[in-house]
Amino acid sequence: MESDYYQHVKRCMKCQVCTDNIHVAPSTLHNLTSPWSFFIHDWSNRTHDIFILVAIDYFTKWIEAALYTSITKSVVVKFIKRDIICQYSLPANIITDNGTNFNNKMMIELCEQFKIKHHNSTP
């Protein structure tokens, strides 16, 4: 009976369209060995007039967030310096999305200055 079910699902077009199987090649994982390995991301409301810059410590699940009217590269660097480095110490790693406000010359200089490893999350 169970094998009949599997065969039916494999042949049913609706079942194949509605399935949630995702066939993506595995990506490399980032090992977490200590606190202060941050993931930084930005979110906005529907009208895009308020942005939230969020940093999450992967190890302890601690969240730092700040509201901005726009998120530029200088805003991101100031947020990292003021809200992460000055309050908690230097993070070992920072993982961001692929946005230009996270991947720019100012961010590279900040990471080189404080010897922080910067990674991008998978798209």
From TrEMBL:
Protein name per its UniProtKB record: Gypsy retrotransposon integrase-like protein 1
Pfam families: rve
Biological processes, Gene Ontology terms: DNA integration
Gene3D superfamilies: Ribonuclease H-like superfamily/Ribonuclease H
Superkingdom of the source species: Eukaryota
GO MF term list: nucleic acid binding
InterPro entries associated with the record: Integrase_cat-core, Retrovirus_Pol_polyprotein, RNaseH-like_sf, RNaseH_sf
Species of provenance: Mucuna pruriens
All copies of domain Integrase catalytic, residue ranges: 31-123
